[in-house]
Structure formats: C-alpha cells, structure tokens
Amino acid sequence: MHHRPGWITTPLTADLVRGALDLEHTGHGLLPHRLPAHARAQCADPQLAMAESQPSGVRLAFRTRATAVELDTLPTKRDYVGAPPRPDGVYELLVDGRPAGRATVTGGNTLAIDMTTGSFEYRPGPPGTVRFTELPGRAKDVEIWLPHNETTELVALRTDAPVEPVPARGRKVWLHHGSSISQGSDAAGPTSTWPARAALLGGVELINLGLGGGALLDPFTARAMRDTPADLISVKIGINLVNQDLMRLRAFTPAVHGFLDTIREGHPSTPLLVLSPVYCAIHEDTPGPSTPDLGHLGDGRLLFRAAGDPAGRASGQLTLGVIRDELRRIVEQRAADDPDLHYLDGRELYGEADFAELPLPDGLHPDAAAHRRMGDRFAELAFTGGGPFGDRDT
C-alpha cells in the first residue's frame, strides 16, 4: 500500500457502498454483510457466515473526475486442503455502467478448509491494494464491484481527484434471494453472476441475497427481505433444500407460505417472482443429500452425487421435480388474491438442453458461460414489458 503525494483518501461510508444490508466496523475498516446483524445472530452456521460475508453484488459507487483509483482491502481467501490453490477474487471496474477494468488483490487472510473432516483453520494475512489507472478525466460514475466469492474488508479508498456519492438516478431496486447459483458459484467475475448480469441489462440496482448453501427458507432471511426497501423482489427456492435433505413435503409447503407471508408484510404489492430450480440432473428425481466425491480434488475437481433414494419421494422427500410442482401450485393458489405474485420455472433459465450443451462441471453449479446465458434469459423474461418486472407502476 502506497500513499502518494497529492492523492485524496476518502472515508469509506455507507453512502459509497451499494448492495450490502449491513456494514460492520472492524479493526481494519468496513466489512460488508449481506444479512443484517440481527439475522446473523440467529444462526451459528459457519457456512452461512462465510457466504453472507462474501460480497456478491456489493460495490463501491461514487462520482469523480479521478483518473486513478486505489482501494486497500483485506480479503479472506479459501484454501481447500489437498486441492490446487483457488484463483484470487476478481474486482471489476465500471465507468458510466460500462466495463473498464479487472484486477485482483494478493495477500489477505486464508481460511483452510478440510473437506474430509469439515474442519476450518484461520490464518491471518496482510491487506493488499487494487489499482485502476488511465480513467477518463471527465466527471463520471465509477463502480468497483467486489469479489462475489471472497470475504472482503474495505480498508481505504484513494483517488487523484475528489469523490462524492452518486446522485439518485431513479433506478428500481431489485432484491433477490437464492442459493450459491445466485451468489455466483463459478461465474467469471462479480458482474458476470447471472443476477448481476440481469440487473445490468435491466437497468436496476441489485441487492443480491444469493447465499451459498443458505437458501433454506430461513425466517430471518424472510424478515431481512421484508425490512429492505425494494421495488422488485424474487426468491429462488429449491436446490439447497434438496442437497441438504433439510425437510419433507409436509414441512416445505407451509414454510414457503410463511416465507412469502413475511415478505408481504413489508412489501404488500411489490412485484414478487418465485423461481423454481434450474435443471440439475442428479436431483431431478433423486432426493438428497448431495455428497462430495473427493477423488478428483487433487486435480482441482470437486464433484457431487445424489445420495438419496428415488423411492423416498413416496414418503415426502424432496426432489427438484417435486419442488417445481409444489411451487407452481402454491403460486397459483396465492395469486388468486395476490395479482403481483408470479412464477417462473427455473428450467427456462437453464434446462435439460442447456445441460447437454453446457454441463454443470461439478454436478451442481453452472459454469461461467451458463451464468451469462441465465442472466440474459432472466433479463428478457423478467424485465421486458410483458415480464413480471417490466414497465409498470410499483
């Protein structure tokens, strides 16, 4: 980290951060969270804690004439024991909404994860700096999208010209909740996750509550959505409930109703879109849990298989097919009294034909090309005039 003469250090405050529901003050700076503190206090799951602190959709946004920007951060990187090192998280720069650069930060903390035992080891490390230079000298809107899959503490922001918050542009806020697929899984970068791409194409402000392993119909997540101002809301339900074998159909139906009821307490007439799971061959007709196949971990490949028995459907075990049928039924039932509630089959974003062309590399998660396709399709299906998020009064 270098402090050059003439550079301006701007305090990192909430009015420069978008896409986070909470900013925790740490010994280094600010740690963006995608769940509020009261929600985090109600669940001690380390997987959820890791996922919600990874800033998918979170970005710094400011207006400036600066030609150079430096951002000091303290990332926490994941290291899977026995696997090759993971690539560093990607920071992406947008200038007036257009891509203008990509960079990474070396160093940082390390969370060593042993998949064979489920244990974690935390190793502290130093902050690093991401730099963007040769920006146009005119007044412009600048966004720095933080890595979607790497916990990131914001330490310092420096520029060679003053910075001010971006004025309101009148864009709608889209609040989305889903699983690791919505968080970004194997997307190429933070603006390439399918929700981020769809938001940029749709001209909306994204708040992404895609939580890897954490789309479990948790009441605290529903309350966080209830209390978050938004013009458009979507919830993608299914894959985590199956791959964790979390509940049976008897519990699933009222849990979905309760989740939607809670959101409606704060957003009684906001367009609300329920998405069912995308295609996933291993769980279409076979219940969970999903179990990892560690045989290829040494060459960087982690595969998953379905460990359930298809016969379990008779006793109420969930599969993706069962969930789609029930979500469609629930939405149709509720829509009779809630005309702003809508349903979208996830296979319209990624279906069986897409799987044949762009197979899921690990059996569960779409790759970068599939994320791009899903984002394009969601933008077309949801944000066009005839879609549930199309032009209308909200």
Task: Describe what this molecule looks like in 3D.
The protein is α+β, with helices and mostly antiparallel strands. It is built from 10 helices and 21 strands. It has helices spanning 37-40, 46-53, 180-183, 194-202, 219-226, 239-243, 249-266, 320-335, 352-357, 368-382, and strands spanning 8-10, 17-18, 22-25, 30-33, 59-64, 69-80, 90-95, 98-104, 109-114, 119-123, 128-132, 140-145, 151-159, 163-165, 173-178, 205-210, 232-236, 272-275, 290-293, 303-306, 341-344. Strands 1, 6, 9, 10, 11 and 13 form a 6-stranded mixed sheet that branches. Strands 2, 5, 7, 8, 12 and 14 form a 6-stranded antiparallel sheet that branches. The protein has a 5-stranded parallel sheet with strand order 16-15-17-18-21, with helices on both faces. Helix 4 (194-202) runs parallel beside helix 10 (368-382) and helix 7 packs across helix 8. The longest helix has 18 residues, at 249-266.
